[in-house]
Amino acid sequence: MNIVFWDIDGTLVRTGKAGLFAFQSAIAELGFRQPELHRIQAAGMTDYSIAAQIIAAVTGRQAQHEEITALTARYEELLPEHLARHEGKVMPSVREILPALHAHGVHSLLLTGNSRRGAELKMKKFGLAGYFDFDRSAFCEHSSTRDDVARRALESVKALAATEPARVFVIGDTPNDVRCGKQIGAYTIGVATGTFTETELALHAPWWVTEQLPGAADFLNKIAQPSPVCYGEIDAT
Prior knowledge:
Elements: E1 2-6, E2 13-14, H1 18-29, H2 47-59, H3 65-85, E3 89-90, H4 94-103, E4 107-110, H5 116-125, H6 146-160, E5 167-172, H7 175-183, E6 187-191, H8 198-202, E7 208-210, H9 216-223
Parallel strand pairs: 1-4, 1-5, 5-6, 6-7
Antiparallel strand pairs: 2-3
Helix pairs in contact: 1-3, 2-3, 3-5, 4-9, 6-7
């Protein structure tokens, strides 16, 4: 069994920073001053971590859990408007690879810092939602750390591959994606279509690093190379 976990922002799509602009609108509605968005670390972060950073930036103190959940909920409500307003795009080869994986019986799941609602909205916007099992995917729900998301992904692996060997891949554009993948013992793929270069991603020793994803045939050939691994333990290296 092959299972491929995908990051969203910078890996599958770019949204023209629609998410950050939605957060900006949401924080204004809650009565705070506007944050300096260039100071907010978004790449590889969870929605709850981004919300916490924004609240801390505009209040000068640590964000409270209730504030984080309220800001994230309003962000989700405003996100469709900003996705429609800001130009985005699907990353190279994604529209070719996803149907090819489906045709070959590969499970495509999401391992993302987005909330489930945010992920669904982004995937629907770009016509990619039908390729993913959202119930088995791993989202940031009420967590500020990617480690929690990785643990959810591992539970999905155990459920899907309970009785047979599995090859598990995690694809992302940031060092955090590589780290998450290693934490669950996956083959990690660093793709330099986000804010990190190939050289920067290579420093974190992913199984494969590439400037952008190749065509579907080459991608399928690449993930066919490893020997099957039975995923029962977390590889924390």
